């Protein structure tokens, strides 16, 4: 393979779902997986905007997941959170 610029070999670990999506996207675009990773990295490094958007999306996903949990889980009506009870269970307070 011929490169128009110097390259450095890197090794990284992907989740299986990421690997499958990377392979499919590279096939769809007709480029190598390495080229697709370089393109994605170029876009990510070119702007800090992706970080902000990713953080916002992560918060939104968390809130949606929390809402789903809320729909299916209920504490007893008289239940109250008491920090002392948690600490006692973890051995932070005396018995």
Encode the helix/strand succession as letters: HHHH
Strand content: under 5%
Mean pLDDT: 81
Helix amount: 55-70%
- Report low-confidence residues grouped into runs of 5 or more: none
Class derived from helix and strand content: mainly alpha
Number of helices: 4
**What spatial form do the alpha-carbon principal axes imply?**
elongated
Please summarize the sheet with the most strands: none
Any chance you could write out the topology, listing elements then pairs?
Blueprint: H1 16-29, H2 33-46, H3 49-72, H4 83-89
Helix pairs in contact: 1-2
Describe the protein in words.
This protein is mainly α. The chain has four helices and no strands. Helix 1 packs across helix 2 (33-46).
What's this model, at a glance?
With 95 residues, this protein is mostly helical.
Supply database-style keywords.
elongated, 62% helix, 95 residues, mainly alpha
